[in-house]
Structures are given as structure tokens and as C-alpha cells.
Automatic annotation (TrEMBL):
InterPro entries: Acyl_CoA_acyltransferase (IPR016181), GNAT_dom (IPR000182). Coiled coil: none annotated. This is N-acetyltransferase domain-containing protein. It comes from Paeniglutamicibacter antarcticus. Residues 117-251 form the N-acetyltransferase domain. The lineage of its organism: Bacteria, Bacillati, Actinomycetota, Actinomycetes, Micrococcales.
Length: 251
């Protein structure tokens, strides 16, 4: 059974993989686990059980040394946050954890969904972050110990119209329980509510869990951290609300 703790672990593994794939690093300071993602000059604090000044101070100092322009913290809703608030963190949009078996799209989208990292349109940080989908293919180059959860399989899917226009993308990482953790799902504003997001979920699920398409009745469980604007979408695709968490930003 998928729990909030399990979902938190899945998100931590994703941020660790993104840090490693983009030339950053993961490190700890007195009970605080951090992921430095240089492609966006972002430092992320990952679910401290009880953040204290002794862990926050050296972590933030390292972020300053590295040139962080944005510092975030993901926190369990039940974890104390007094030290975080004293350090200058405040709540961004509340997140909700969703999990459940994927249901097929109600109406097929008239376009193409493909797995892969060949996106000629990708520039800057977007292009660098595509490397996260190749991390598991070359674990020796990652600098992490064998079996590290950040090295679990990651795939990226793109959605294009029949004319070839890129209109959506999403990542999925294989979680430790066999679920697929969804990250970075985005659809172009002018193409939303057309079934593209659902097609991306189904394309990732088929490609990762059943690439030959031999059994269309495969049961595939997904996990996602939803923003207020995306919660309804995930629920429409078969995912239930697990609970809520906190996403904080250093102001």
C-alpha cells in the first residue's frame, strides 16, 4: 500500500537524480538532506524530520557558496517547521499527494506520444535536465553507489501533434515498490483539456511497464505530488488523495 512516506521518498529520489544528472550533488548536514541542482541554480531540502539550526545553517551556507538563486524545502505536514520559518522559509502553494491505478483516457488524443530524450526545441536548463532520463543507463558515471534509489529507471515522454508541434512532456521514475512516480508534467496552455496529459501518463505507463503492449489490462499504480491546479487532473486519471504536504521557499 502506498503511503505518504513512500511518496515523499519517491520525490526525494527524483530530486537526487536530477541533481546528479545535471552536474550537481547531494549532501547532508546534521539531519538535513540536500540536493543541489545547478541547471536552475536551485538547492532543495528534502523532508527533514526535525530541522534544526545546526543543520540548516551549514546547508544554506553551502548553497550560497554554490550560487543558489532559489532554495526550497519539502516538508511533511506533521513535521515541526519553527527552525525553517526562523531561517526565512515560508509556504508556497500547498501540495497534495495522490496515488492510484491509472485509468485509460476517456477519449483518445489525436497526436503522438513517444519516449525518449531527443527534443531539438529544448534549450538551457530544459535541455540539461533531459540527462536525468539517461542516468540509470550509465550508473558508473553517476558517482553514486550501486543500488542508490536515484539510479532507478527514468523515462521522459513527449506529446506532439500530427504536424510535429511539441505540446506536452512528462517524466516518470520507477519507485521502489514498482509504482511510477510522475514528475514535471506540462502541457502547452493552448492545448490543455484535450486529453494530452492523460495520453502522456498512459504513454509512460505502457512504455515502462508493458513496452510490447501484450496486455492492455495491466494494472499500473502512479504517484504524484499535485499542486492545487493539477489535483483534479490526477484524480480524473484514477489517483486518490493520500494527504497533504508542505512546499516552502526561502524568501
Amino acid at each position: 500500500m502506498t503511503t505518504i512516506g513512500f511518496a515523499q521518498d519517491a520525490l526525494s529520489h527524483w530530486h537526487q537524480a536530477m541533481a546528479t544528472a545535471t552536474g550537481g550533488k547531494i549532501f547532508t548536514t546534521h539531519g538535513c538532506s540536500w540536493a543541489w541542482q545547478p541547471a536552475r541554480a536551485r538547492l532543495v531540502l528534502l523532508f527533514p524530520a526535525h530541522a534544526q539550526e545546526a543543520g540548516l545553517r551549514p546547508g544554506l551556507a553551502e548553497g550560497t557558496r554554490l550560487g543558489a538563486r532559489r532554495v526550497e524545502a519539502w516538508v511533511n505536514s506533521g513535521a515541526p517547521s519553527t527552525a525553517l520559518e526562523a531561517a526565512g522559509f515560508s509556504d508556497a502553494a500547498q501540495i497534495s499527494w495522490h496515488a492510484g491505478e491509472l485509468v485509460g483516457p476517456r477519449e483518445p488524443w489525436d497526436g503522438r506520444v513517444r519516449l525518449g530524450t531527443e527534443i531539438p526545441e529544448a534549450k538551457g536548463a530544459d535541455a540539461k535536465e533531459l540527462q536525468v532520463a539517461n542516468l540509470w543507463r550509465d550508473p558508473a558515471a553517476a558517482g553514486l553507489s550501486a543500488g542508490h534509489p536515484a539510479l532507478r529507471r527514468i523515462e521522459q515522454a513527449t506529446a506532439r501533434t500530427l504536424e510535429g508541434e511539441l505540446v506536452g512532456r512528462a517524466f516518470a521514475q520507477q519507485a521502489l515498490g514498482g509504482q511510477l512516480a510522475i514528475h514535471g508534467l506540462a502541457v502547452a496552455p493552448s492545448h490543455r483539456r484535450a486529453g494530452i496529459g492523460s495520453s502522456l501518463l498512459n504513454g509512460l505507463a505502457r512504455g515502462m511497464a508493458n513496452p510490447l503492449g501484450l496486455d492492455d489490462q495491466s494494472r499500473i499504480e502512479l504517484i504524484a505530488a499535485a499542486s492545487p491546479s493539477s489535483a483534479q487532473f490526477f484524480e480524473a486519471n484514477g489517483m486518490r488523495l493520500l494527504g497533504r504536504g508542505r512546499h516552502l521557499v526561502l524568501r
